[in-house]
Amino acid sequence: MLNLLQISDLHFGPPYVPGVGDALLKQAQQLPIDAIVVNGDLTQRATAEQFEQAKAFIDALPEVPYVVIPGNHDVPLYRVWERLTDPYREYQKHISTELNQVLRVHAGDQGACIVALNSAAPRRAITNGRVDPWQLELCGREFDQTPAGELRIVVVHHHFAPPPDYDRSPVMPGARRALDYFQAHDVDLLLGGHLHRAYIGNSLDIYAGGEREHGIIVAQCGTTTSRRGRAREREKNSFNYIQADEHTLTVTHWMFFTDEGRFAPVGRHMFPRRPHHRLPEASADESEAALTEAPNRRDGG
């Protein structure tokens, strides 16, 4: 079993909620975790102090491999000259010199190639971001080297596919081109943030694309530690916990409950993994039975 923790939109600075952050750190220590994904917007205004706080928070998470990418709030907004000339200075000083990252992780007989792409684009698109063709080519090269049977995961801050019931924030320009490219390279899972509300579904919910058999599983993370939740997660905090075995990929959505002072699971979404999503010789009853019998444990086994 491969176990991933997905958090996003920490927003260190005025929006950050210390009690929620403490609860997340406590919960993370209680879950089997093989790798962590941090989906950007670590800070509110990209100051040195806020990045220092964000780095201390990341360092307090379980000591496992992780990928982290900047979000649009991790570049200066009002410090215009800095945004135009050296937008990632504080991020690279305190968080990571690498703006695009590749992580290969294994747990038991399960493996994953995680490609994290910087979509911040501070000189062109502060709000809805960009992913350039060379970044897609980076994905292609890495996934071409990924053995069959290993998960292929793309991480971005901005969203290629918004929830079907949420239209306040436009997708990135070129989003459909990117989704077609990801489908052609057999991407299993797309992890995003930015919207401050969770959505777990399939890219086919929004865009049919050129390959309409299976689509890509989409796991948008809400804001994990700030008071800036939106829509159905207004003033709420959440994270996603992702588990993969040979047959099934499960995304469990966790939300913070103020009256209890802790995170708790509120929804579980199970998806058959490739090639198990195509069962041309099985009846509907057999397919349902296979999904029911697929293991779903949190013990890291």
Q: Could you describe the 3D structure shown?
A:
The chain is 23% helix and 24% strand. It is of the alpha/beta class and 301 residues long. It is globular. Residues 274-301 are annotated as: Disordered.
Q: Would you give the CATH topology?
A: Purple Acid Phosphatase, chain A, domain 2
Output the CATH homologous superfamily. Answer: Metallo-dependent phosphatases
Query: How many DSSP helices?
Result: 7
Structural class, from helix and strand content? Answer: alpha/beta
Q: How would the global form be characterised? A: globular
Profile the largest sheet: 6 strands, mixed
Strand content: 15-25%
Radius of gyration: 18 Å
Order of helices and strands: EHEHEHHEEHEHEEEEEEH
Domain Calcineurin-like phosphoesterase: 3-197
Protein name: Cyclic 3',5'-adenosine monophosphate phosphodiesterase
Region (Disordered): 274-301
Keywords: Hydrolase, Iron, Metal-binding
Write a brief caption for the model.
The chain is α/β, with parallel strands linked by helices and 301 residues long. 23% of the residues lie in helices and 24% in strands.
Quickly list its features.
23% helix, Purple Acid Phosphatase, chain A, domain 2, 301 residues, single chain, 7 helices, alpha/beta, 12 strands
Ordered list of secondary-structure elements with their pairings:
Elements: E1 2-7, H1 18-30, E2 35-38, H2 48-60, E3 66-68, H3 80-85, H4 89-94, E4 101-107, E5 110-116, H5 133-144, E6 151-155, H6 175-184, E7 189-192, E8 199-202, E9 217-220, E10 238-244, E11 248-257, E12 262-272, H7 284-293
Parallel strand pairs: 1-2, 2-3, 5-6, 6-7, 7-9
Antiparallel strand pairs: 1-10, 4-5, 8-9, 10-11, 11-12
